[in-house]
Amino acid sequence: MKKLAKYLLVSMLVLLLAGWLLLSVFDANRLKKPVLGWLNEHTELDLTIGRLEFNPLHPYTLLAEDVRLGDWFSARQLYLQLATLSPLSGQTRIATLDVIDGKLQLDNATELVLPDNLANITIDELNTKNLSLSWNDWQAGGADLTLSQWQPRRQGAWQWWSDLEISGQLRQLTHPAVDMSRINLSGRISQQQLMLDRVQSRLFDGLFDSALSLNLPARELTLNEPQFSHNKLQFEQLPQLDNDWTLLLNRARLENVSITSPTLTANGIDGELRYLEWQGGNLPEASGSWQAEEAVLDWLRLDEHQGQLSSSRERLGLTLRGKAYQGAFDSELRWYPQQGRLDIDNLQLQGNKLNWQSDLYWPVPDVRIHKLNLNQGELLSLDPALPLSLLGGELFIADLAWSGAQWRPLTAQARLEGSWSEMAYDSLIARHGHFNARLDDTRLLLDKLSTDALDGRVSLDGSIGLYPPHQGRIRLEGKELELRRLSHWLQAERAFSGQVNIDADLAGTLREPASWQGSLALDGSDIFIEKLGLDDWLKRRLGEDYGRPTRVDPVLAALDLEQSDGFIYRAELKGPVKQGRWQLDGSAVQSVRHLLALRGALDFAGRWQLELGAVNAQRCRELAIRLEDSWRAPRLRLHQPELNTPCQPWYQGSIPYPAAGLPGRLTEAVRKLKNRD
To answer: Is 392 helix (H, G, I), strand (E, B) or coil?
Structure first.
């Protein structure tokens, strides 16, 4: 009996040893092909496995290599450890599922069809190492994640967003508008929402720290108390949000953040966004404040400044104050993007030095200025076509709008006031200027403009129409104006100097010379004109014989005038303006030796019809000069009329006969001098 028991025990040990040896050399890969074939045929998984390790002594443990599921999932290794497997009840519990070097493309993912005995699947712990994931434009790489207590399948239906705990790291997360790296996260999925208690990462070369909530069915992302530190945000274009998405920020903190984009650049931003709600296709509803070292929007540059934001879906409200263009500013602005409209509620500028560039333009089609006040401003134009500079500028604007390339009033109180210490246009300088102007629905009303210019004083008032035909009225008065300044500014072919007074009261339509009406008077003294030897020319004409009216070549006459310079003691040109023609009456020019009287008309369109006369001491005309046709190509006729005794005065104006003029009859006196020479 003892021997039988001994033989039985030895036999059992031998059988156990043989079974163990047989199972130890068991190759599960031989079952891989038929099993996978059966699975793909009955489940539509499209599953492939490169190598399989499975030991019947450990039936709940499986290691698969080179796993591929369709064209949307692959892994270098997949380790599976089952806790329970109850096919009859449809309950499957996975204790551990490890995915090594996996790649998941959610855009290509298809619904997994599994048999009914896999109706309920629960995963106690899912670990990924170096997982790559892509979804729409999002790319995640190097994901080492741990998902706990996850039931992705229940009663035969997949529920990927079922409750679970999540923690881990991502090496990188990218999107066309976002680039994050070294991401640490921990949180959970609850009620189909991803709620991360904390996310820490590198974001645009800076740090990001926030609590996060992602409601994918509602397409809503919420960041609670996010902190952005030393981030360098770079955009090829400002970010846009899809129309069906909503972004919420609560108590966002900014520390030394910078923004670079084609239109906006800002550096050294510190501040707080108290809240932000941004729905795609609209402006965000937001409130916050910040300070920044500098900001550049197109050609507008701000230095150290503070700002406050108050925004709704239709309107962006900004309050900005600080330094700009070597001065200070304070502003309240409202921007309506759907209307393309900017409201300047209040803009205060103090001591700013502005530069005008030839390529500057105003990108906003509709601007409404409710209040603008500029104090001690400076302007320097770097545009060769606009050689303008201004010092000590003061400007006040109230209730004006610019739209459709046209100014218009917002209220009946629309007005402009301004002054300057010095304004230079090229070499023409005006000092101590001041103006007042108003705007109504059809006209710009200039109540007063006065300035020191050309070493004299100029005052101007009037109005001009805002719309075609732009009818206007001007009242211009200039006292003791130095022509030398004007000559240098015009760079005239003939230099000239002297002093002149001007008095004009005109009304008409711009660009329609024939419409002008009113009066115009010029009064000059001590006038020097280079290469316009009037005295010598008149002396030679008086010494010649023009007993009959004779036409003279104007080109030869002009060459004769250029043989010497001219000096005019007094000049008076005055008369009414009718239909764009200046009717000269009682006008004369007094040179050193002659008094030349003028009658006729100058046409604002560039024509003249003048009768000139060299008169003697009795003011009788002894040389008649007639100028006709255009200013640039005139017709000239000379005549020495016979004089009666006593002669009939041809000029009765206020200009006296020159003290050095020839006495008696001019023609006789000139010819006697000529014979004597």
So the answer is: strand
